[in-house]
Amino acid sequence: MHPNTHLYNQHQNPPHREICALLAETIDRYLPDAQNKLWHGHPVWFLDGNPVAGYSRQKPGIRLMFWSGADFGEAGLNVVGKTFKDASVFYNAAAAVSEADLKRWLEKARTIQWDYKNIVKRKGVLERLPAPSVQAPR
User: Fold this and answer.
1) Cα 87 from Cα 121, distance rounded (Å)
2) Residue 78 has what pLDDT?
3) φ, ψ for residue 44, nearest 5 deg
4) Number of domains composing the chain
5) Calpha distance 98→121 (Å, rounded)
6) Which residues pair with 42 in a beta bridge?
7) How far is residue 68 CA from its own chain's centroid?
8) 46 within domain boundaries
9) What average pLDDT does this structure show over 54-61?
C-alpha cells in the first residue's frame, strides 16, 4: 500500500478508517501487480496505467468504485455512472464488506477494462481493452 493511501485511511473517522483499511488490504491482496497512489485526492489502483478500482469518502459513506464496473454484471454494484462505465457501492461498516464479492469484482476489474488512460487523447471516447491473456497469481 502506498504511504499516502495509509495516511488517507488514517485521516478518516473510526468506522470509515476500518472500512478503508479493509478495502486497501483486500485490493492489494487480489491485485498485487496494481500500482496504488492517491489520484484526485483518493486511493486508486491502476493496471498498466489504467484506473480499475478505488475508494473515497462521500456523504453516504465510503464509496468503492470500479472504473469499468458497469460491465461486470453485478447487482451488488448498484450505483452506476451516467457518463462513463463506472459502478460502485457505499459502505458504512467494515462488516458490510463481503470479501467474496470484493474478490470477484477485483477479478473482473482485471479482465473487463475500458481505456480511461487514453480518454483525453481520444477526446472523451472510451474504448474497451482486450482481456489480458495471462492472469496474475492469486
Assistant:
1) 23
2) 87
3) -140, 145
4) 1
5) 37
6) 39
7) 9
8) yes
9) 97
Q: Which domain holds residue 38?
A: 3-111
CATH number for the domain spanning 20: value is: 3.90.1150.200
Q: Say how far apart CA 67 and CA 70 lie, in whole Å.
A: 8
Name the grid cell of 46.
491502476
What single letter denotes the amino acid at residue 37? K
Whole-angstrom CA distances from 48 to 10, 62, 77, 113, 132 are 27, 25, 24, 11, 11
Of 45, 44, 42, nearest in space to 34 by CA: 45
First to last CA, the chain: 17
- What is residue 34's DSSP assignment? S
Mean pLDDT for 32-44 is: 96
**What are 67-88's pLDDT values in tens digits?**
999 999 999 998 887 778 999 9
Q: What is the DSSP string of 70-137?
A: GGS--TT--EE-SSSS-EEEEESSGGG--HHHHHHHHHHHHHS-B--TTTTTTTT---BPPPPSSPPP
Q: Any idea what DSSP says for residue 43? A: E
Q: At 25, is the pLDDT very low, low, confident or very high (cuts 50, 70, 90)?
A: very high
